[in-house]
Design a protein that fits this description.
Length: about 160
């Protein structure tokens, strides 16, 4: 009985920690990445305009479906960045091919899941960021953030 209670307590603490990572209203955790053109960048370099950020895995069917759905609902003028999280450099060319045309694509070089700054529970990890890098919405489903994307005021 005590072990069940302890396990429940551990599970609850894990879920609370995962839900707090990059929650709406908080600054998106910064990380380093390798861009498709071989330059290096940080997520914080993208501040100044709203951003649709997707953490994905090219071997994930849900990720591929989400990228296609997001491409269809993304308004013109909303920058989009797809990041192959915890990426394997051998799969990097394939990852680039999975990303819709007109999106920036990057390889996570920090290990965002290993560092515990993003949650693998949200895969794909879809984040809508404001111009200051704060999370407006977070989901693993394009449909659940569609109204936030459509409600953005783009310059």
């Amino acid at each position: 009985q005590d072990s069940d209670c302890e396990a429940d307590s551990i599970r609850k603490a894990y879920i609370e920690r995962e839900m707090a990572l990059n929650a709406p209203g908080t600054p998106a955790a910064d990380f380093a990445m390798l861009m498709a053109d071989s330059s290096t960048a940080r997520l914080s370099d993208r501040r100044g305009a709203p951003l649709l950020l997707v953490l994905f895995d090219p071997e994930c069917d849900d990720c591929r479906r989400a990228l296609l759905a997001l491409a269809a609902l993304r308004p013109d003028g909303l920058p989009a960045l797809a990041v192959f999280a915890e990426g394997d450099e051998e799969l990097w060319p394939r990852a680039q091919a999975e990303v819709p045309e007109g999106w920036d694509v990057a390889l996570d070089t920090d290990g965002v899941y290993s560092l515990g700054i993003y949650s693998p529970e949200f895969t794909p990890g879809i984040y809508l960021l404001d111009a200051d890098g704060r999370v407006l919405a977070r989901s693993s489903s394009p449909q659940s953030i569609e109204s936030k994307v459509k409600g953005l005021r783009l310059r």
